[in-house]
Amino acid sequence: MSSQIQNYRVDLGNRAYDIHIEKGCLSRIGEACTSLFGEQAKRCLIMTNDVVAPLYLATVQTSLESQAWQVSTHIIPDGEQFKTIDTWSAIMDSLMTNKLARNEPIIALGGGVVGDMAGFAAACYRRGIPFVQVPTTVLAQVDSSVGGKTAVSHAHGKNMIGAFYQPKLVWIDPNVLQTLAPNQLRAGLAEVIKYGAIWDAEFFRYVEQHAKQLHELDTKTMSKVILDSCRYKAEIVMQDETEQGARALLNLGHTFGHAIESMTHYTGYLHGEAVAIGMCMAARLSEQLGHAPHGTESSMVSALQALELPVAPPMFTAEQWLDAMGHDKKNIGSLIRYILLRGIGEAFIAEDVKDSDIQTLIQSYA
Question: Does CATH place domain 182-363 in 1.20.1090.10?
Answer without folding.
Answer: yes
